[in-house]
Amino acid sequence: MAEVRPELMQRITTPELAQRYIDGKIEEIRAQVGDKKVLLALSGGVDSSVVAALLIKAIGQQLVCVHVNHGLLRKGEPEQVIQVFRNEMNANLIYVDATDRFLDKLAGVTDPEQKRMIIGGEFIEVFAEEARKLDGIEFLAQGTIWPDILESEAGIKAHHNAGGLPEDMKFELVEPVRILFKDEVRVVGKELGLPDNMVYRQPFPGPGLGVRCPGAITRDRLEAVRESDAILREEFAKNGLEGKVWQYFTVVPDFKSTGVKDGKRTFDWPCIIRAINTTDVMEVTVEHLSDELIDHLVNRIISEVPGINRVLFDYTPKPPATVEYE
Ligand code: XMP
Question: How many CB atoms lie within 10 A of CB 115?
Fold first, then answer.
């Protein structure tokens, strides 16, 4: 039978409503978990960050967060997870730098679906390995939200949070934002004291920068994606576009072209900029940037990012083009 969102539940739009939700959930979590330990895969995305903050409030050190750095995160992300959760919220956080492991497995792999499978599979493996090292974990917390439930019921996508762990690892689930929509999760996150750039961050795919480094991922091209993405985010923030444009990122394709720098021939990659708006991600329109911003972005990226000698802008809507390149 289809699960229903509690009928009389008011949409959480204000700090007061968020606080009431938080207080209620803290009670529920304590009643469910008792003095047992809870494990959480903390990516630093909105949903898992809000779940972490809520659980830290409810059960403190009984929560064990595992942050797996697969080497495909944006610049500064792992550092921010450590800063916010370990240093500021005093969370019990295990940080695993698995960059080499992921990039070694991905070396030479060009097929997009195979890349996704490797990233997803390796993630589960690293997480399971960490979980096995811990004693007395009985619960697994997940950042499942209401649209995940609706989409899996409608058969649109498999519920990505549930399952995946090896058969012998059975945990009871703790899903404290399960009945919330994304905008409500953000209001709750803000009330829990998470920083704005975590609460209002743009969507970011699970396979991370891996899908923005088309074809076989190499460390140097991945670094060019990461650096150009950081410049783009910085410039969007400076120009008041952060939080207004739905999603924006760079892609560095696997081909080179001729250029010239300081009187010498170069043979380097192009960097593609994509900035889009949407409400449902089924149909997407392109954000038109000002001439000044375009010039400035081109200038910064070609002068600051090693390996790039051209900047291109992708002005294609969806359909026909998907948001991501792979
Ligand atoms: P597409 O490329 O399908 O993207 O038009 C639509 C939205 O979904 C995001 N996306 C992903 N998110 N895992 C994710 O968690 C993925 O494999 C994935 N692929 C695409 C994409 O960033 C966009 O917001």
Answer: 23
pLDDT of res. 158: 60
203 touches ligand 1 (CB under 6 Å): yes
Ligand 1: does its nearest atom lie under 6 Å from the Cβ of 45? no
Phi, psi (deg, nearest 5) at residue 61? -75, -5
- CA–centroid distance, 235 to ligand 1, in Å, is 23
From edge to edge, which strands make up the β-sheet containing 63-69? 92-97, 63-69, 37-41, 137-141, 172-174
Task: Give the C-alpha separation, 184 to 14, whole Å.
Answer: 9
Instruction: Compute the distance from residue 323 Cα to the ligand 1 centre, in Å.
Output: 7
> How far apart are the CA of 51 and the centre of ligand 1, in A?
22
pLDDT digits (tens, 9 = 90+) for 152-200: 887 766 655 545 788 888 999 999 999 999 999 999 999 999 999 999 9
Asked whether 316 lines ligand 1 (CB < 6 A), one says no
Report the alpha-carbon distance of residue 27 to residue 32 in Å, rounded: 9
Give the pLDDT of residue 8: 59
